[in-house]
Amino acid sequence: MPIKSNLPWAKLSIHFPTSGRIPANASKGKPLHNVSIRQHIVDRVLARRGKLHWFDRLNPASTALVVIDMQETFCAPDSPAEVAGSREIGPAINVLTQKLRPLGVPVIWVLHANTHRNGRSDWELFFNHVVSDEVRLRTIESLSPGRQKVWEGLEQGNNDITVVKNRYSALITGSSTLERVLRNQGIDTLLIAGTKTNVCCEATARDAMMLDFRTVILSDCCAALSDEEHLATLETFIQQFGDVMTADEALAALEQHKV
Q1: Region of 113 on the Ramachandran plot (φ > 0 left; ψ -120 to 50 alpha; else beta)
Q2: Are 41 and 239 in contact (CB under 8 A)?
Q3: C-alpha 203: how far from chain center
Q4: For 79-85, which contacts have Cβ atoms below 8 Å and span 24 or more sequence positions?
Q5: Could you list the mean pLDDT of each consecutive 10-residue stretch along the chain, which spans 259 residues?
Q6: Fewer Cβ neighbours under 10 Å: the N or C end of the chain?
């Protein structure tokens, strides 16, 4: 059953699979989160705004890829805050960055760190209430400033930018310098990748929209602890906060800008 789409590069239609739902991940190979945005969500979006996607085209000159929390604390096996799926999205992120850099799209790696001095951290609410004492000590150690680097399975470019945050959202006041970096680069559009889909990726993406950045969550370049949590973010985001695309769809929208 075809449905009209506002994306010219999609040949004006999206074809549903037999389940009648739009795939949240459509890249080649088996996706990490093999889920689909449910039909009633699609119907609600179409009834409300008359089209599925927020953005027809993306301008490479004002777009940046923001990759969140792809670091040892979350990617390494047996790490204190391991998201096992984060390792599985590494190849997709590498393919994407290889294609974005020649287009002039900046790649920004956002890493998380928290300070700990005299028995207190710079985020006491989190460390005292979200994690147990045993996990707390391991997490504080793993998130120490100076230890953070991009996960070894990811390929960095010479002109890539690295930003360090200390809250879920990299764009909340006081968390990082990300907003200033983006404004000074002339960026108004963000592609969001990384982990967890429903925590730091979603928090940053929501705040980006609130700050008037055109924001796209890349469904096949984000990882959560479960399909259900991943899907919940995608369905909420496409309704209220920004677009949801696969990496290939985002690349096609960037190429469309040249037409």
Answers
A1: beta
A2: yes
A3: 10
A4: 79/142, 80/131, 80/135, 80/138, 80/139, 80/142, 81/139, 81/142, 83/195, 83/196, 83/223, 83/224, 83/225, 85/32, 85/33, 85/195, 85/223, 85/224, 85/225
A5: 42 32 48 91 95 94 98 92 95 98 98 85 76 77 83 96 96 97 98 98 98 98 97 98 97 86
A6: C
User: Tokens standing for 249?
Assistant: 């769809």
- Give the tokens for residue 216: 């796209």
| Fold for the domain defined by 58-113+148-256 | Rossmann fold (3.40.50)
Q: How far is CA 224 from the centre of its chain?
A: 11
Cα–Cα distances in angstroms (integers) from residue 153 to residues 16, 70, 191, in the given order? 34, 9, 20
Q: Residue 192: phi, psi to the nearest 5?
A: -105, 125
**Domain edges within the chain:** 58-113+148-256
The CA–CA distances, whole Å, from 71 to 30, 143, 162, 196 equal 23, 10, 12, 12
Q: Quick one: which of 6, 28, 24 has its CA closest to 16?
A: 24
245: Cα separation from own chain's centroid: 11
pLDDT at 147: 84
Pick from 167, 231, 190, 164: nearest CA to 54: 190
